[in-house]
Sequence to fold (644 residues):
Amino acid sequence: MAESAMPILTVGTVLDDKWVILELVGRGGMGEVYHAHQRNLKRDVAIKVISREWLKFIGGDEEEIESTLARFRREVEAMAQIRHANVLQIFDYGSTTVKRDAGDASVEYIAMEYIPGAALRATMSDEGFYPDDPRMKTWLTDYFLPVLDGVQAIHAAGMVHRDLKPENVLLDGATPKISDFGLVRSCRLKPVTRDIDIKGTPPYMSPEQFFDFGRVDQRAEIYALGKILYEAVCGKMAPDMIPFRGVCLTNPETPLYQKLNQTIRNATAEDPKDRIPSVQALREALEGVLVEPEKPSLPHQEGHPPKIGRAWRAYYVPVALALLLVGLTALAVMHFHKGTPMTVVPSESSSTPSPQEGTGNRETGTPAASGKGAVKPLTLTGKDRETLHLVPGGKVTLPPNLNSEKGTSVAVPPFYMDETQVTNHQYVEFLNQVLSGLRVDGGVVRGDNGNIWLLLGEVMEGYEPILFQNGKFRIKDPMHAACPVLRVTAYGALAYAQFYGRRLPTEVEWLYAVSAGGSTQPSPSKQVRSSSGTGQTEMMQSQVQQNLSKPEEYRPRIPSPVILFPPNAYGIRGLNAGTGEWGVRNQEYSSGEPGGQTQYVALGLVQPGTSSGKKGSLPAGVPRHPWEAFEEVGFRCALSATSR
Fold:
């Protein structure tokens, strides 16, 4: 919006012979909001005003203006259909002409409740409520559960708000009221938003809202509510908080926060099929969090030990017999299996464990056994909150350009690999943690030893994800936070990996993860359901596949968020799927390499310096200098399983 745009209305204007404009409260892409006084009923109201002339003045094209006006009118219709204590009430709607110095302007307006208080954000501590149990319970009871009541009323009216966030919940005293229905979707109203539109507030947007905004259902609201709940616990989200990803708490210690953590994880699951299905289900989960478990106690007289009643005595004999039977069974098992080692086999239910919270390399999935041949956990959680998946050992056939002999097979020890490539958000967090040792000059970021880590500026035309401003790195557009970091050098990738206690994958590990784990790309013949229900994830994956299958000149120039690639057999996403990755060449399998010198390679279909690669092939890495940076190359980390 142009900073010089004059307000649509001036103080003292009487709108439609009823509303006296008192002050400008705020402005946005859909007009301006004023504090006004209704003369006939002698009450204060809020007036939201939009004008075609004003939209033209701030630079809107004709198509955009028509879309904005249609969305404004639909907001009116949506708000008029809901009467609930926790939803902002609309009083009136009208259109009129106002006189301006630049000429008369036609305006449309909504008259609604005037809420002079703050928004829900004001009730949330910047540092978060953790680990204060009483404050957390009070906030849930006084504010969050009433918000759920309002959202439930919206859903009952057949609508999806699509822009739930703390700033869109106003406080009328202590009563929260949901506002701003500009992006509402309703089965009863004519659609306005085009399928290609991506609208909303990125940190609260579910993955399906990014690719299929026009079809999102109530589960997208559950995701947004889960993010709000996470903020209340952990503190205000940074502007570049990574969108589209699930969240969880870090090592919650009290029973309250442990239960709350499970609710947050279930509410922000990235696949809508795994998410809490409704507001009612979310409410029930939170009510379960608020209920303290009763401590069993037996009545007894003061100063005397508790007496055991006859009802308890009746259980003595059967309990004793049961314990004796268990003991005899255990002795029999030990006798017949003496000398036979126990084998732990992961069950099917543990083959796809959910991410585990933690700041270290927390283990999840199948627990590790001790001693030789111990079973490794299926997943770990890194200090950067990235999930690492176990890739079991095996054999891989090396490509000819890696080894002089065709068809050579080599053994690959088990290892862990990051589920996704490192994102812009993760790399910015890392840079800001090591800021004191960095030097930024002319868009080049150097480490404390002078090595180039990252090239700033446009990665490609119209795409500049990372900025360095006021002595700090930040994401330019939150929508790009979940995209892979590019133009990072091997030095920069290695510094990140080492900072979080990991390393770069070797070339052989990467080849094995691709060949044994299967492609991460969805099959072109995959049937995609077009409903707004369980087919949303498949639709997102199909969109990624369509982009990859297009000729390069027609592909989207901005990378897809890393989480949108489907996982392979090991749970790893985006391998060999269009963006290269830094890796390290295995010296023992290469030909003619200088001994003792680490050689860095770019792995993947799109190789630096080339326009395309042979689809479906498994090319060996292309050797590159560690100080080079390419718009097609990012990275992910690995960790040796044998060292755990």
Residues 133-156 form the longest helix (24 residues). The longest strand covers residues 19-28.
